[in-house]
Specification:
The structure holds two protein chains of two kinds. Helix content of chain A is about 70%, strand content about 0%. Chain A is an all-alpha fold. Classes of the chains: A mainly alpha, B mainly alpha.
């Protein structure tokens, strides 16, 4: 029988290192992806995810299951990501939709995806690549809190109550935040959206 | 339902998280409002576009780095150690109390007061001068004290 996250964390609190290992296996990929989409740098995302796990481990003795484990976990991750984005804002390159789209040189995932897709048609391949780049940039251009809300809603599939606790806002404020984020994405991705709606 | 109210429910409607009566209300509005219907379709398109982003896998060294960070953390204290050192403040106060107790215990007790030898003043007419009469005999009986002593006598130097 699979132990719940809360049970695993209580076992970690009791000194069971193996339970910490199970939590690490369960959440390392979702955390790294969430942080990667927040900070747009793979190495930094991994560093932050490691820091999240370290903080969970440090807090084990004081852990009380008062909220869902994922709420607690992603709250730590979101706080770290928001601080990191604010700290590194000055380093961030301004990305313009008008800028020429060049091949990624820093992102291993993009290169892996190219090999995996292996489109015979080079033109189609470039179209796909351009689409993904537009989507990534549209997410990146969202204000940090809106970006976190969209990522938690879309990719982590957390419910509104959980996300509002993570972002420390009311549920109605969260719904408004998400609506504004989707509106911005709708405008930023207008050519792709129009194409989708027509078909 | 107004378009403004629809805006606050549009994502919950797309996610299927509205209550049955709220969903029916939203669908009724959408049936008569082309603008909101278009927006729902466009939001659904945005949602589908977000699905196109590939997920990444953590690097091979990820777990090892977490293990190294965790291994560098101080381990949980055993229960008896925790009992011995419950709190720095309590430990400090206990130490101070112990030191104070030891200090008081090592001090020499004050000399006892020989109350039985003190003259008792029974009246204000007590004549102090006449009470000193035994003092006049002191020079006459110096050997009485020596005879009463049990101390060994030092040999007289000739």
């Amino acid at each position: 029988m699979t132990r719940s996250d809360v049970q695993l964390m209580l076992d970690v609190k009791a000194g069971d290192q193996q339970s910490f290992e199970l939590l690490l296996q369960r959440y390392r990929t979702p955390l790294v992806n969430f942080l990667y989409r927040m900070v747009r740098n793979r190495e930094q995302a991994e560093d932050l995810a490691q820091e999240v796990f370290l903080r969970v481990y440090r807090a084990r003795e004081d852990y009380e299951p008062s909220a869902k484990f994922t709420t607690w976990l992603f709250r730590i991750a979101t706080n770290l990501a928001l601080n990191s984005v604010r700290d590194h804002r000055y380093q961030k390159l301004e990305i313009s939709m008008d800028a020429p789209i060049v091949a990624d040189t820093e992102e291993g995932d993009e290169r892996m995806m190219e090999v995996a897709d292996a489109h015979p048609d080079i033109e189609q391949h470039l179209v796909e690549k351009t689409r993904k780049k537009m989507i990534r940039h549209a997410i990146e251009k969202l204000p940090e809190k809106q970006r976190a809300a969209v990522l938690l809603h879309k990719y982590q599939e957390l419910d509104y109550a959980e996300i509002s606790k993570i972002l420390k806002c009311s549920e109605s404020a969260l719904k408004s935040l998400l609506f504004r984020a989707y509106e911005t994405l709708r405008v930023e991705l207008a050519p792709l959206v129009a194409h989708s709606v027509k078909h | 339902m107004s378009c403004e109210k629809m805006e606050t429910r549009i994502l919950a409607y797309m996610d299927g998280r509205l209550k049955e009566n709220e969903r029916a209300e939203a669908e009724k509005h959408l049936a008569g409002c082309a603008a909101c219907r278009l927006r729902v379709n466009e939001f659904r398109a945005v949602n589908d576009l977000l699905d196109e982003l590939p997920a990444i896998e953590p690097s091979g060294a990820f777990n090892a780095r977490v293990h190294a960070l965790v291994a560098a953390e101080p381990q949980k204290r055993s229960s008896w150690l925790t009992w011995l050192a419950p709190s720095p403040r309590i430990a400090f106060v206990a130490s101070m109390l112990l030191l104070a107790t030891v200090w008081v215990g090592t001090q020499a007790p004050p000399p006892p007061i020989a109350t039985q030898d003190l003259p008792v003043v029974e009246s204000t007419d007590y004549d102090v001068i006449s009470s000193f009469a035994p003092l006049s005999d002191l020079s006459q009986a110096p050997d009485d004290d020596a005879d009463d002593s049990d101390a060994p006598q030092q040999p007289q130097q000739m």
